Amino acid sequence: MKIPTLRRTTQIAFLAITLLGLAGITTTGLIYPYFFCYSCPWDVGSCPLGIMEHGFIDIQITFMVGLSMLLYLFGFLSLMGVLFGRAFCGWACPIGALQDLSRKLGISKKVDNKLKPNVNPKWKHMKFLMLLAVPVTAFLSQELFYTALCPIGGITGTLPTLTFYSSEWLFGSGFPVKLTSMILFTILIILVTRGWCKYLCPIGAYLAPWNKVSAIGVRRNEDTCKSCNVCDATCPMDIKQVGTKEDMECILCGRCVTSCKFGSLKLGIMPFKNNKMAVIWIVLLLGSASMLTAGVMMGGYDRTDEINAIPCLGCLALDPNVVNEWRSSEGTQPTLVTEVLPTQPVFLHYRTDVCSGCDEMEPHIAILEEEYGNEIEFVHINLDHATAEEDASYDVYDFAGSPDSRFGVPMFTTIIVEMNGTEPEIIYNTQYGSSADQGASKRENLNTSLADALARHVITDSPIGPIVPSDKLVFTELYVDLGCVNCNKSEDALVDLEKEGETSFATFVTDAPGLSGQYASYREETLANKLNIDGDIGHPWAVFAGGPGEIIGASSASSAYNEYLTEIKSTSMADLNLTFGGQFTDLSRILGTVVSIGNHGDSDETILVEAFLVEKSSRWLNYQGHPIPNAFIDILVNDTYTVPAGETLDIESSWTNTSAVQFNDLRLGNIGLVVVAWQNGVQVNSFMIVPEGEDELYMIAQEPEKSALPNSTAEFEFTLHNYMYFQVTVNLSVDAPSNWDTEFSQISLSIPAESSTSFDLAVTGNITWNGQTDKFKVHAIDVSDLTIQTYSTVEVDVKDDIAPPQIINPTYAPDHPDADQQISIEIMVGDTSEIESVQMSYFSCTPQACSPYFIIDMNNTDGNTYTAEAYPVGLDHTDFHYRIIATDVYGNENITEFYEIELSPVDDGGHTSEIETDTRPKWIDVVLLSGIAIAALVIVLTSREKPGKPKKKDELPEEEKPMKEPAEPVQESSPGIDKEAARVRIQKAFDEGRLSEAQYNHNMEKFKD
């Protein structure tokens, strides 16, 4: 393979290796022996200069850490240098390849011809000053000073990030500097061939001296050389007398070897000139390898890997743009969080040693801590000096990254406890970094989050109560259980009031399965506490959010209607500049919803939005066997939003299922989204969004899953709804496995208009066995129009045992525990088969808030006796709640209700926290920038062409004198020289711009025939 082809191939190969992140490979602690930004979104290695800066800063903070990194860095680069010299510049560096491409424009050839006679070759030593400036500036300023200026970071890091991930990032305060450096770099490489490599590249400066001793080089064969100097002319680094000695500027690109028509140049492994050079090479090789090994063993690689795991915001000159929202926590929670959460929210502030964004945010965090210090626990974590638990906590809340690829610092996480059904759950809000120009706005965002956290952390505080809404549509909550005798009276009254546009309401079924029942019970209990209702409140219980009080019970549907209407009419409502709307979409078997809120006013409006997914005619039946109206299925939106003045906010959400209700169980024509908006604890509007169109038929199984013994029978009850305005007759059929016999209670059904009927299906196993699971798809098809049909799927799980474990005699000790005492729980578990596991779920509470819940295994101590020990989570807690979860080997599960134990709180003594401060001087930045500007000015002034001296009358002009070696293409005319060949070489040199017109005429004159 020819050298140019081979070189292009290796350049592409190294670029592909550099960008292995595109293939899903994570970042590593490997160092590139060339220039590439380690904050490129797809990089897998580290920039040598960035690691150099970190090393010289770390060595001042933790000496051994910094030393290990510097040994690892310089050992690696030195090893590459002693083996390959500066070959990486010509064969691997993506920036070198970029400069090669820029040369294709042809501009640099013309500029080079003017620069060569006028630019002092000593200016190539500027890159050595650049190399020296990198560690010096980092050491003095303790900041990544060079990376903020680095144009290569902009080209290989900032530009890809903005191009492919523009929605995730904002311009940082350093972006104008980064953009300016990129523009200047682009001008340089267009105007000057390999201008970056010649004058400014610090990595090239470090590798350059190794050309003197490296094993690879370019050698000239003097015996075959014709001294045509074509090799000198083609060298992009302007090297003279190529191959006669080892030159520090040589990038071993091989252009000289390719251009030589006489085969006088060779690129490859070169023999040592003498034994002394061989000894020196071996010593340098062993020394470099020893430094590299020592650095790795001392932890240099690991430290480099840690640095590379988080994008350098200084390199990118960008700030993360992440949606500010609350999320449910996953994974193990750190004790530094769970120990504090029972009493107050936790604010985690992460930073690292070398992080300009962290430094800029420190004053803002200090202001917030001073404001909220008594209400919120502030925990400051420096990831470079963190305990294992503190470091791992970052990955718990870093939702935009992963343990292998952390998203960035500074990171701020606010953690609170909220109720999820009947159990408290940890949720968190994470926001990412900011630079100086966004510090104040970021602090405002954090302030809003902290205020929201305080409001949401107290679980007995609910935004429901006597309020003044802005519209005539009032939101009503109805609480029922399935055995409620009088619930239907309130249901009928509310249905009529909703049809008349007086109210929108949601029915919370307190004993429905899955999320509905858990959430309904929690919401009902919360309201009881809010309204100071003691004892058994009974059913129905309707709370009018827009009215001044509450209604409990009703003697008849008409009296309920009148009382509810009176309550609605008594509300006082104010006008707001908000309009509401929304829609449903079927996203390939995923339910999508959009709530649209328009603000036609002159100021922003901040509102809390709740959106409840409901079934207008529910699968759950009341005491009279009628479907419960507007029954709650799930909550899709529950968050605070700001609607800018004159704009419309679209709140999108999606839904697939709950534990009790699947998407396939829903009929789009039978669902609605009840949306409620609150402002400052006051309801401002409520409305219901319904899908367009309606299904004609809808079938639902009352219990879609059942267990059965082998070769036994399971019975299912179905309800078939007809939503059309005329009667239909349907035939029933079922798709069943061959080893099951099926029997309908009736095979054909006539359903009156806008009505429903029920039927049963019995399935009997025929050679069934333990562990078998089978599904049955039941069809109902209109006999007069086969396009009108519906279906429902049920499932039978065959087990040798279908009875859940029995849990009896729960006891605890001591009888009256203090909040700092261990509590022992003992129960007895009985079952016809073997017990798989017995667990205890528990949490504890203050009068205002509860801790997150914990699940622990109970130990089998004697026969069917199980015990567990747990401490209350907080010293000021007054209640301990626990329940038992017993499962047998067949998957039958029994979950008890929560048992409550009263606690005696104890004094916790209080706690305080401190914030780190940064007092590093900033004047060094101004001095360094001024020094660079002065150096650039000196280069420009001293590189100008100087006026020539007065010439003597008989002296030839300088440009007409014969060329001096080695620029002269041939020697003086002599009988032994082929004049025709000499004229050809002169003509070629002139065509390529290496000879002036006067030089051309002078040399051609010498070789006339």
Q: Which secondary structure elements does this structure contain, and how are they paired or packed?
A:
Layout lengths: L2 H16 L29 H14 L1 H22 L2 H5 L2 H10 L3 H12 L7 H16 L3 H5 L1 H14 L4 E3 L3 H17 L3 H5 L2 H6 L8 E5 L9 H5 L20 H5 L5 E5 L5 H23 L2 H10 L3 H4 L1 E3 L5 E3 L6 H4 L7 E6 L4 H17 L4 E6 L5 H10 L13 E10 L2 E10 L6 H19 L16 E7 L6 H13 L3 E7 L5 H16 L10 E4 L5 E3 L4 H13 L8 E9 L4 E9 L5 E17 L5 E17 L4 E8 L15 E9 L2 E8 L7 E5 L3 E4 L4 E10 L5 E8 L4 E5 L3 E4 L3 E11 L7 E10 L6 E10 L7 E8 L9 E8 L4 E11 L8 E4 L1 E4 L2 E6 L8 E10 L4 E3 L3 E4 L20 H20 L36 H13 L5 H10 L3
Parallel strand pairs: 6-7, 10-11, 22-29
Antiparallel strand pairs: 1-4, 2-3, 5-9, 6-8, 8-9, 10-12, 12-13, 14-15, 15-18, 16-17, 16-19, 19-20, 21-23, 23-27, 24-26, 24-28, 25-27, 28-29, 30-31, 31-35, 32-33, 32-36, 34-35, 36-37, 36-38
Question: How would you describe the overall organization of this protein?
Answer:
This protein has 1009 residues and is an alpha+beta fold. Helices cover 32% and strands 27% of the residues. It has a five-stranded mixed β-sheet, sandwiched between helices. Strand 34 (859-862) and strand 35 (865-870) form a beta hairpin. Helix 2 runs parallel beside helix 7 (126-141). It is elongated and about 125 Å long.
